[in-house]
Inverse folding.
């Protein structure tokens, strides 16, 4: 019995250390999220750096959400902030719904590219990236929302039937679905008159997404949108 107080002291110290480590880890995650967010939103960042930073930021957002943190505007002019979730409404604030149409057995969503060009995307979770038809790419180049600095070379892709294909890769400065906008999305240029595909370079950056077959809508949660 004489050893019990000492054991309690050790246990309490261990619990305190674990809590401190958890708090420190959360602080580190938030710091990394903030640094990535700054680069993601920096108009002077290169296409490669901006896309990479945005993808990292949205990955960190998932980790923070799993840890019970919610994203909300900070008081004053401090910018966005992460805090412990205190109400269901905090999480729901980052959720959105967009209507789609059914065409030939696929879901088609209206989207706005780089703030100006309208396109209709097939939701394709099997596609590695967002694919934009050549006509839409040319339109964005004409109106100045896509420049040579946004192109990131070519990448080799393997199609579902096993064929290999080279496509030009570029940074899509923004992709708006419903009232949510995702910045710096990795995209590929499709062939003329090809279908626009809403692939994993968009979908995997969401916290989650699902299809509502009753309301013909896609529901999703994205903490990077404002």
């Amino acid at each position: 019995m004489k050893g019990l107080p000492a054991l309690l002291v050790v246990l309490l110290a261990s619990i305190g250390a674990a809590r401190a480590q958890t708090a420190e880890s959360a602080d580190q995650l938030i710091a990394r999220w903030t640094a990535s967010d700054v680069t993601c939103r920096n108009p002077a960042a290169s296409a490669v750096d901006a896309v990479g930073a945005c993808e990292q930021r949205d990955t960190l957002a998932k980790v923070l959400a799993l840890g019970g943190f919610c994203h909300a505007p900070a008081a004053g002019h401090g910018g966005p902030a992460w805090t412990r979730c205190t109400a269901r409404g905090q999480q729901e604030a980052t959720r959105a719904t967009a209507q789609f149409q059914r065409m030939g057995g696929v879901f088609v969503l209206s989207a706005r590219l780089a703030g100006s060009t309208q396109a209709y995307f097939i939701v394709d979770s099997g596609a590695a990236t967002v694919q934009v038809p050549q006509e839409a790419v040319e339109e964005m180049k004409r109106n100045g929302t896509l420049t040579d600095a946004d192109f990131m070379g070519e990448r080799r892709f393997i199609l579902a039937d096993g064929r290999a294909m080279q496509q030009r890769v570029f940074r899509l400065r923004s992709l708006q679905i419903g009232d949510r906008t995702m910045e710096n999305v990795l995209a590929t240029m499709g062939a003329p008159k090809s279908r626009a595909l809403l692939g994993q370079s968009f979908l995997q950056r969401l916290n989650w997404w699902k299809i509502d077959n009753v309301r013909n809508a896609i529901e999703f949660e994205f903490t990077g949108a404002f």
